[in-house]
Structure formats: C-alpha cells, structure tokens
Amino acid sequence: MKSIFLVFFSLFILSSNSLANEKEVLLTLTSGEKTIHLTRKDLERFNQITIKQETFWTKGETSFTGPLVRDILNKYKLKGKRFVASAYNDYKITIPTKDFYDYDVIIASHVNNKELTVRTKGPLWLMYPWGENKELDQKTYYSRAIWQMTKANIND
Q1: According to a count of CB atoms within 10 Å of the terminal CB, is the N or C end of the chain lower?
Q2: Sheet containing 48-53, strands listed edge to edge, beginning at the edge strand earlier in sequence
Q3: Which structural domains are found in the chain, ordered by start?
Q4: Which of 68, 74, 24, 71 is nearest to 49 (CA)?
Q5: Residue 11 has pLDDT above 50, yes or no
Q6: pLDDT tens-digit readout, 54-76
Q7: Burial 130-145 (b: 16+ CB within 10 A, else e)
Q8: Over 80: is that where the pLDDT of 2 sits?
Q9: What would the mean pLDDT of 29-50 be, rounded to a whole number?
C-alpha cells in the first residue's frame, strides 16, 4: 500500500511541476502601454528555427533552436527602433530592431535539443546566425547574444 501511495504521490509531483513550468513566464515584452508575458509553451507555438554554429561559449558546432524574434514582434504588433533586452543578472543590451528583420535572429530555448536552464545560459538565449552571415562575425553582434534573457522593452 505504501509503495502505491509513493507512486501516485511521485506522479502528482511530476505533473504539478510540468504544469507549473508550462505556466511560468520566461519572457516579458513591453512596448508603450502593451505588456506581453510569454511562457515556454507560448514560444513553442511559433515556427522553430535551428541555427548551427560555433560560439565562444560552447564547444564545437552547437545547435540553437527557437522562434525568430521578428515573428514574435510581428504577432504582437510590437514596434520600435530599439529592443532593450535584460537578463537575470540585470545585464542590459540595446539592439536595433532592424537586426531582426535583416537577419534570422532567434530566441533560443533549446541547445543541442536540450531545454535551456539557468545553469546552461537559459532559459532563453538571443542568438544571431553569425555562422551563416560573415558580416555578423564581430564583437558588436557577439555582445548582443544575451543569455538568461527575461525581458525586453521595444521602443523608439
């Protein structure tokens, strides 16, 4: 009887954790009076793009998967010239939104098919496709690849 209880209790805890994770806000976007809260499930509803490239922060060729930033901005009609991204540690970077329309920049939630966690530079990591666009292979764009991103303000 005790073992049956433990099995059901374990299943309850696991299902509760997955429900909590589905509802956990990973990214908050603001633009003017508009605020959008996105969960992992919300982000996964977008077309998922994979960028394969080497980075300073990973070993060998690495796959980064997530939606295009421009798809998110377009869906929620978020307009502005600047995308001010913030991370858990209060690191901020200002990115011209033009970048998102000129290049296939993604908000990666998976690296090498594994869900990103805070420990692995997640849960979200803004990633430029500098492996496919040699003009992006410079310090300016590397500094914009913000990890542990939690929010962004889109403004002029």
Answers
A1: N
A2: 48-53, 62-67, 110-111, 114-115
A3: 25-155 (3.90.420.10)
A4: 68
A5: no
A6: 998 999 999 999 999 999 999 99
A7: bbeeeebeeeebeebb
A8: no
A9: 97
Residue 23 and residue 4: Cα distance in Å, rounded? 29
- 35 has which bridge partners? 30
Q: How far is CA 112 from the centre of its chain?
A: 14
Residue with tokens 């970077």: 93
Own/partner pairs for 121-127, CB < 8 Å, 24+ apart?
Answer: 121/57, 121/147, 121/148, 122/147, 122/148, 123/26, 123/40, 123/148, 124/26, 124/27, 124/43, 124/66, 124/148, 124/149, 124/150, 125/64, 125/149, 126/69, 126/85, 126/95, 127/51, 127/64, 127/66
